[in-house]
Amino acid sequence: MTIHEDDKLTKQEESGDLTLGVLEAIDSKKSITQRSIAKDLDMALGLVNSYLKRCVKKGFIKIQQAPKNRYLYYLTPKGFSEKAKLTAEFLTSSFTFFRKSRDQIEEILENCNKKNWKKILLFGNSELAEITSLYSKNYEIQIIQVYDTSNLKDSQQDNFPPASDLDAIILTDLTSSQESYEQLITIYKSKPILVPKLLKVKGVKSGR
Question: What single-letter DSSP state applies at residue 80?
């Protein structure tokens, strides 16, 4: 790869990081302004405006006018998909991904070991699942299956491993973590569903 190509790749990665920052800022707050986004992300106000226009043009966000000449920003379904994709790209390319995931997975596995949860389903075929499988060998834990969530929308409940065969489920889906978690709590209502914090899944109940 030439130096010019390296520079181009770095700019693409930086652009993706900034877009992810804008989408996350909008998703995390019900009412947000360009100025507050700029402050949260330590970006120039003009740059925030430019990225918002770009996101609107690509169909990631919509703008609705509110009283007092204010505007409300919210993510479209396409925006949520883009945010999930950029989050996955950031996690897998980040230098700290392995260290963070290792530490959080070891904490989860230690908890499983203490509670005698030996038969574990990994929900999501990803680098996170590979790390979990690797470190599970340090404990008396059996990975029953690594469930591929790539065709989650087309899956029938009959295709999931029966709850009677499992002690707990660890969410390892990097690309559609929120959707996978919501499906898991519907299918495995009585089973512990363990979620690494780095996935940033909303609505995780205490003890799950």
Answer: H
Same-domain status, 83 and 101: no
How is residue 137 written in tokens? 């060998």
What are the beta bridge partners of residue 65?
71
Cα–Cα distance list, 148 to 92, 102, 125, 151, 175 (Å): 17, 21, 5, 7, 11
The residue type found at 152 is L
Q: Would residue 204 count as lying in a domain?
A: no
- 167 near 189, Cβ under 8 Å? no
Q: What is the pLDDT of residues 135-181, one digit of tens each?
A: 999 999 999 999 998 766 655 566 788 999 999 999 999 988 999 99
**CATH no. for residue 58?**
1.10.10.10
Tokens of 193: 């569903």
Long-range Cβ contacts of 4-13 (<8 Å, 24+ apart): 13/93
User: Is residue 32 a part of any domain in this protein?
Assistant: yes
The string of pLDDT tens digits covering residues 39-86 is 888 888 888 888 899 999 999 999 888 776 678 888 999 999 998 888
Find the radius of gyration of the CA atoms of the chain. Answer: 20
Q: State the residue range of the domain holding 119.
A: 97-199
